[in-house]
Amino acid sequence: MHMDNVRKLMELLKDYDLNVWKHSIFVMKFSFEIMKRLDLHRKEVTNILIGSLLHDIGKLKISKEVINKPGKLNLQEWDEIKRHPTYGGSIINQYNINSGILPLILYHHERWDGKGYYGVAGKHIHFGARVIAIADSVEAMSSERPYQKVKDTKEIFMELLNNRGGQFDPDLINLLFKIESNNNQLIFSNNLAKKQRILEKLISVSRNYDSNVFYSGGY
Fold it and tell me: Which residues are CB-contacts of 99 (< 8 A; sequence separation ≥ 6)?
């Protein structure tokens, strides 16, 4: 793994669009909150952490006007947005990132029912991409956006439940409901002030890209 190149790409993303960069940091956090409840090899955890950081790196090739458009995208703009996983795959190949990251970048917008960007379905979708897809959606729902209000924890869980087996891996969604029953709310916190306070800590951890830091509670 060429970690210097991961850092370079994250700095490029930060310079290009701060909101997409922040989103990526929190998707990494939410991905880890899911993974630490699973029996995964540390290497797989690290790959998914990096994949979650870089899942939107393809947006470097999309105009900021389209990325940050407050209203509804037209058909041409939407087609361009849908290319960002392919763009992302091209970028990580150029930067010699571990090839194991590629399917996470390419397939994080796939759906369990096969109605995603490329039509890959169910367990044919890389497991890491399924994790990132949930974390990506949760972060979007719990953040202020021009086109939507912030959803509270109950609303987020209802969205996940209603899309279980459709958009999302049903087994992973069942796991998240178990998390809620254990009163772990941080993963779905909609407190933007709290999110901003922990952002600097997450940034520091993300520079290491080391799952051991997460396991030690360093985040």
Answer: none
